[in-house]
Amino acid sequence: MTTTDRSRLGSRLQMARGWYWAFGVNGDPYAMLLCGQDDTPGRWYEQIRSASDGLFRSRCGAWVVTRYAAAAQVLRGPGFTRAAGEAAADWARPFLDARPAAGSPPAAVDELVLEHRQVAAEAGARFDLLRDLARETPARGVTARLGLTGEDARRVAALLRSSAPALDARLTPQPLAVTERTVAALADVRQQAGAEGVWAAAGCEMAANTVTNAVLATLRTPGLAGRLADDPDLADRIVAETLRTAPPIHLEVRHATAGQTVGGMAVAEGDEVVVAVAAANRDPQVFAEPDRFDVDRAATPPALTSGLGHPDGLDEFAARHAAAALRALADVLPGTALTGPVVHRRRSPVLRGISRCPVEI
């Protein structure tokens, strides 16, 4: 990449971010969501939902879906595709294949429990939940399944970590240095492990955040850690509620392959439709007290996930790691406490990525 290329890319990234801020401060909540500066983006979801009974048309050019029924139609319907083609902004194109069509089937939960127990034992009594367990365990599993050992395994694991912003970078312009580092990491992962490595890069980051969110929900819900210690099978219900309240992917982009009606609005062929999965899973018309984490919630529709209609195994990969981590930690979670603030990554509206979560067991 030449100096001129870098300068042009930096300008394009800054310009795109500037437009998002300009749209956002002038009343576009989706644009503010894309800026990725909030630890609690729920207010933007509510503003999007309140702005229209159907779909919200953002000045960023996308339709935004926050209602459960309309979201399910877009995610499950054959009239929508993930392919963006030339419609994508130039700064986002290097990341369009960061979520390949499919990868290896996820390992069984029982197998993953053993992996999480081993990594947790190595971490000691005080560690960072995200860095030392939630991200480390899936990365080790991936490198092992790729047949990598020693320095090769460590190098690919580092590349998986460096690829973490890729899914967010498809929608939100990252700083120039982060963009360059992520593009280079994806290229190296592809060279080392092909499409399977790129799939793993997305899966490991989705799993890391889902594991962390599931453990945090368990610690923050009164009495839940004790219930899990008495009944490790409760892990499945904790994960199901985690997928509803904090899904692995918060914003899923689809494009209409034909003109159609969604949520009472006419969507034209080629239109970009963004499903706010996290908002749809808290639709008050579907879920009573939608912001409350409740593993005893009465029968409700299943949580929507980004893989509906385009199954690639990534949501299941994340969910199985979360269930395994809860089972592995079940005995110690009643005595586990946070030892510092949970820090979220900025410019991460897609993953709502966590960068720090210190705990003591």
Structure description:
The protein is of the alpha+beta class. 50% of the residues lie in helices and 10% in strands. It is built from 14 helices and 12 strands. A 5-stranded mixed β-sheet has the order 1-2-8-5-3. Strands 4-12-9 form a 3-stranded antiparallel β-sheet. Strands 6-7 form a two-stranded antiparallel sheet. A hairpin with a 5-residue loop joins strand 1 (56-57) and strand 2. Helix 7 packs across helix 10. It is globular.
Main beta-sheet annotation = 5 strands, mixed
The fraction of residues assigned to DSSP E strands is 5-15%
Q: Give the number of DSSP strands.
A: 12
- Rg over alpha carbons: 20 Å
- Spans of at least 5 consecutive residues whose pLDDT stays below 50 are none
What is the element string, with H for helices and E for strands? HHHEEHEHEHHHHHHHEEEEHHEEEE
Assembly type of the chains comes to single chain
